[in-house]
Amino acid sequence: MEKILNYINGEYREPQSGEWLDNYNPSNGEVYAQIANSNAQDITSAYEAAKAAFPKWSHTTIGERSRIMLKIATLIESNLDRLAEAEVKDNGKPLSLAKAVDIPRASSNFRFFANAITQFSSDAHESIGLNTMNFTLRQPIGVVGCISPWNLPLYLFTWKIAPAIAAGNTVIAKPSEVTPMTAFLLGEICTEAGLPNGVLNIVHGTGPSAGQAIVEHQNIKAISFTGGTKTGEHIARTAAPMFKKLSLELGGKNPNLIFADCDYDKMLAVTVKSSFANQGQICLCGSRIFVEKSIYEQFKKDFVAKVQQLKIGNPSDSDTNIGALVSKPHLEKVQSYIKIAEEEGGKILFGGKSVTVKGSENGYYLEPTVIEVYDNKCRVNQEEIFGPVVTLMPFETEEEALEMANGVKYGLSATLWTTNLNRTMRVSKQLEAGIVWVNTWLNRDLRTPFGGMKDSGVGREGGFEALRFFTEAKNVCIKYE
Ligand code: TXE
Q: In the Cβ-directed half-sphere of 199, how many Cα atoms lie within 13 Å?
């Protein structure tokens, strides 16, 4: 059986514990690989490699760093099929999605930051009349930790690694133990691209063991984490006494506000996507749909009709719209929320049941599920489900829509559908979310700040924000005569 090894100091190594974890293919429920179950000893080895690589890498010219990163981007592209197939096997997402989004985006993460670093600059402040000149140095932090989740495995893994190494840091990165395969393959690509040994070290294993060891390590001074809010809270508690820099991208319970004056057909098509893309397992999916009362009944009918047409199937089939959920425990978690919705008086308008796919009978498939709820305070509207489940509710006024949109502990993204410019401005300004999309969804320019408010996280990634996170600002103040 295939083994997923750690990539430390440019070479593949077995875990020091000698222990392995099962790697499941969610589309058929079978174990198909063994994952290194790493512990603090492996993190120490990775740290030693990263520490040794740091002086040279942090003094490598921007041009050279950029050149290597562009090569990694190109190699990801030329391995598109292999990486996409690996992602599908690990995650259960449709192959068409992995080919169109996940893998190309992983490549653009490297390409983008390879270019961004050539434009990154710092400030100078001349204290006029005082013969003093200040300038800001932006220096790499040293060895940094990147911890990523299972929903967009290579996409989010590279979203952290690329700015970290572009800025001159060396990295210890841990992908989710649920979807480690593409991170494992990235090691090979980095070696082929000529990334010096120790600049990127990829360690596999569970959160409480390998992940916790990264967060607890005294000399890893910055952690970039994407995952669940509970885990983020735990990481913050662990890291705070060591005064680490933290970037936390956590959960969401994103609202879709649909006004009667929107472009209806466009809204309908995009809302199906924003609800169910990647089986609803994207932190930016719109899981609460609020519709203006005058078009609510029409929307309900049209939305359910469109959702009915989505094809659930083996992720490798070209006509599959909805693949498998990532794991059995996750499927069970999502199903438990459908039960909660029924207990709370929600009305299942469509879906709600698990699906048996011919030839993949033991896979983790679930119907896309649409639930009408009557109170925004119900648990299915307050807690992150992170699956193919959305709720519908009508609203009468803009104020009511805003109150419901903001009436959750999360604040990651929001989508607004209207053609009224005044409303666009009013509502965008009042939404408690790090990202507001108007008449679009998941439209990403990598230069823009990305992150959430409230329990959705701390800090922003993307563009120069990420390069600022992965550097220390040092002011140099020169007095001259
Ligand atoms: O994520 P975890 P899980 C949400 C979603 C999901 C829930 C739990 O609601 O149902 O979180 O998912 C590592 N120290 N999101 O349990 O545990 C872990 O190994 C250091 C939203 O899978 O947060 C993995 O690499 N690291 C989300 C990563 O953290 C630790 C995406 C994320 O896993 C650790 C995924 C520890 N103590 C889930 N414990 C989003 N915002 O996109 C775990 N990890």
A: 26
* CA 234 to ligand 1: nearest atom: 37
Average pLDDT of the segment spanning 319-340: 98
Mean pLDDT of 236-244: 98
State how far the Cα of 226 lies from the Cα of 23, in Å rounded to an integer.
21
In the chain, what is the greatest distance between 2 CA atoms, to the nearest angstrom? 82
Average pLDDT, stretch 242-254?
98
Say how many C-beta atoms besides its own lie within 10 A of residue 358's C-beta: 7
Residue carrying structure tokens 């649409």? 370
CA distance 301 to 303: 6
Confirm whether 398 is a catalytic residue: no
Catalytic site residue 77?
no
Average model confidence (pLDDT) for the chain?
A: 98
Distance between Cα 147 and ligand 1 center (Å): 9
For 64-108, how does the pLDDT look when each residue is reduced to its tens digit (9 = 90+)?
999 999 999 999 999 999 999 999 999 999 999 999 999 999 999
- Exposure string for 131-143, b = 16+ CB within 10 A, e = fewer: eeeeeeebebbbb
Give the confidence band of 230 by pLDDT, cuts at 50, 70, 90: very high
Cα 451-93-177 angle, rounded to 5 deg: 70
Query: What's the one-letter identity of residue 453?
Result: M
**Of 156, 168, 159, 72, the residue nearest 120 (C-alpha):** 168
Please name which of 156, 153, 147 lies closest in space to residue 23, comparing C-alpha atoms: 153
Helix (H, G, I), strand (E, B), or coil: what is residue 204?
coil
Q: Annotated catalytic residue: which of 146, 190, 262, 283?
A: 283
Structure tokens at 284: 């930016």
